[in-house]
Design a protein that fits this description.
- It is a single chain.
- The chain has a four-stranded antiparallel sheet with strand order 1-2-3-4.
- It is α+β, with helices and mostly antiparallel strands and 143 residues long.
- The protein contains four helices and four strands.
- The chain has helices at 2-7, 63-77, 82-108, 127-131, and strands at residues 12-18, 28-38, 44-54, 140-141.
- The mean pLDDT is 94.
- The chain is elongated, with a radius of gyration of 17 Å.
- Helix 2 runs antiparallel to helix 3.
- Helices cover 37% and strands 22% of the residues.
- The chain starts with a helix and ends with a strand.
């Protein structure tokens, strides 16, 4: 699928979740990325990465926009290193989502499921993680 998408034009492709089985179990989603690079001598290479991402039992609004913005920013900072760009992007997502879930559960109270307004992403409170995330999500280079 990533090769088909590359053939349509983009040099960087990231699939945020797939139905592929995770080696870590059914509580994880598999994310895949692929980046084509043209070198100064005209040769080409492709870096592919895989990440196992923990599932979260909640629905958020804005995670796709945040992911796209972070991937754009981190691939700009690391134009030839998809592994690092994905680790930074997915780590930002992890930090923001964890902060949001903690806050939402606090608001909802013990034993209650948070409401959609309580699950609004804690963006301002996550500023430091957005700018310089601690890497908590690791990518594996697969080719």
């Amino acid at each position: 699928v990533m090769d088909l998408l590359h053939a349509m034009g983009p040099d960087t492709v990231v699939i945020t979740s797939s139905d592929l089985p995770s080696r870590l179990g059914d509580q994880f989603l598999v994310s895949l990325g692929s980046q084509r690079t043209v070198h100064p001598d005209g040769s080409r290479s492709t870096q592919r990465v895989r990440m196992d991402v923990p599932k979260v039992d909640a629905v958020f609004v804005g995670t796709g926009d945040l992911f796209a913005a972070m991937l754009l920013a981190w691939t700009h900072h690391y134009p030839n290193d998809l592994k690092t760009a994905c680790e930074k992007t997915f780590s930002v997502m992890h930090h923001v989502i964890q902060r949001t879930i903690s806050y939402a559960h606090e608001l909802a109270g013990p034993g209650r499921r948070p409401s959609p307004p309580q699950l609004e992403l804690r963006m301002v409170q996550s500023k430091a993680d957005i700018e310089d995330p601690a890497i908590v999500m690791r990518a594996t280079v697969i080719s």
